[in-house]
Write a structure and sequence with these properties.
It is a single chain. The chain has 22 helices and 3 strands. It is mostly helical and 452 residues long. The chain is globular, with a radius of gyration of 25 Å. The protein starts with a helix and ends with a helix.
Length: 452
């Protein structure tokens, strides 16, 4: 029976559409994060949420999906952003997912999944009994149908929530005096998903099933808002175009980049995408030509200077990358990711003053992002350069802890404790990590099952 419950639980978790994120990487980009936060925070506020309490994650996955999981956490796949035609559509999806948080659906869906699993448990149990009784064909059929039973029951529970989320998405955007037609356009663009089999649908439409009635109702609500035809702010249009071009440049092969953004296209998004694509194939001349043209037109754009710094770093010129990264940080002084990029370049140059400046940048970054594992890794390099092995071990333990590598975190914390002065901040930091990952404590047993 334990085995049966485990099978059913795994099947129900798949219905939540959040599991794929566990095996996928997150995209970290200062510009894209800033753009999405600028769009999302007003929606969260009108929904009665505190923006600082809601995390937004960008998942590097070409499939079309968005979901809420782990409390107040909105996840967007890069595939969804790149498949969208405009900012309205992305905002519509964000507004829809916001309701799932504000309307308490993350709790009710967990209960619905539990209820939905009951017929599946019965079906699995009958299937196993049938096989044991000498009817393998009937048993196999019952086992195969168990997931379908659970899915049908789960969607019965969630259909009303999806309708509510559509309604509230329209309401949120209307309150912001923005066109709510994006969610309608998004649904209609992928309406063909309604006739596809479950296996062939995009992940988003497996967890957010479409229906003709749902699309019609949402369209009616959007048209009644009086804002359906309101044009997008030109600044938002530019943000979307640049974000999409950046994702295509980084994530798609050069052939796709040059198909979507041919050399004859001299727009800013096209040059942005081509610059990034050229960097990826180490075509330094083209990459610098395109980004320099953008900097000439818009010298106060920190993200253009950031990209130039990255181009130079990635193509083997880390020392030359420092100047544009300093300028990027001057233009956007409080961004953790820009500080970390500058620190990385300074450590590559490795002059005495660089170590001090890198430490300052990393400590500032960790104030706003204390769980940034890469920043902790770079800080460990700083401490090694300063010949401070105990602090380097503490930083390494922090980096390992924040990526979930608890055995490594425990090992380095234990080493640091042996060399640190008791009751100092670093000693207490190492002790906290050691205790949180101590394999002798029963509550930490699950950590040690996760070997890296």
């Amino acid at each position: 029976m334990k085995m049966l419950r485990a099978i059913a639980l795994g099947m129900v978790l798949l219905l939540g559409a959040a599991v794929p994120a566990l095996s996928q990487s997150l995209i970290r980009d200062a510009e894209i994060e800033q753009t999405l936060r600028e769009w999302t925070d007003p929606i969260l506020e009108v929904a009665g949420l505190v923006p600082a309490d809601v995390n937004l994650y960008i998942i590097n996955d070409p499939s079309l999906n968005a979901f809420v999981a782990g409390g107040q956490r909105i996840h967007l796949h890069t595939g969804l952003i790149m498949a969208s035609d405009n900012a309205r559509q992305v905002k519509g999806v964000i507004a829809h997912e916001t309701c799932h948080i504000a309307c308490g659906h993350t709790v009710t869906r967990s209960r619905a999944a539990s209820v939905a699993s009951r017929p599946a448990l019965v079906s699995i149990g009958l299937g196993v009994l049938a096989i044991a009784a000498g009817a393998p064909d009937a048993g196999a059929a019952l086992l195969a149908s168990s997931q379908q039973f659970a899915a049908l029951n789960f969607f019965i529970h969630t259909r009303a929530e999806e309708a509510m989320a559509d309604t509230m998405a329209v309401q949120y955007l209307t309150e912001l005096e923005q066109s709510p037609m994006g969610i309608v356009e998004f649904f209609e663009k992928f309406r063909y998903q309604e006739v596809l089999s479950e296996a062939r649908r995009y992940p988003y439409f497996r967890s957010h099933p479409l229906s003709s009635n749902r699309v019609r109702t949402t369209r009616t609500l959007a048209e009644e808002s009086g804002l359906a035809d309101k044009p997008e702010d030109p600044r938002v249009v530019k943000q979307f175009d640049m974000m999409k071009a950046k994702l295509v440049g980084f994530l798609e092969p050069p052939a796709r980049v040059f198909r979507d953004y041919p050399p004859t296209d001299l727009s800013a998004p096209a040059r942005y995408a081509r610059s990034i694509s050229a960097m990826k194939v180490a075509d330094l001349g083209t990459a610098l030509k395109e980004i320099d043209s953008l900097i000439e037109e818009e010298p106060d754009n920190p993200y253009f200077h950031e990209l130039k710094g990255q181009i130079l770093f990635e193509t083997g010129r880390p020392v030359d990358s420092i100047e544009p990264l300093i300028e990027a940080n001057r233009l956007l002084p409080d961004n953790a990711l820009l500080k970390i990029s500058l620190a990385r370049s300074l450590l590559e140059r490795n002059e005495p003053e660089d170590i001090i400046l890198a430490e300052e940048a990393l400590r500032d970054a960790l104030i706003s992002e204390p769980n940034n594992a890469f920043a902790w890794t770079q800080l460990a390099i700083v401490f090694e350069a300063q010949e401070n092995r105990p602090l380097a071990q503490v930083a390494t333990a922090e980096a390992a802890y924040n990526i979930g590598n608890y055995p490594r975190a425990h090992s380095f914390a234990q080493r640091a404790i042996l060399e640190l002065q008791p009751n100092t901040p670093a000693f207490r930091q190492a002790s906290d990590i050691r205790n949180a990952t101590d394999p002798a404590l029963p509550e930490n047993e699950v950590f040690w099952r996760r070997r890296f």
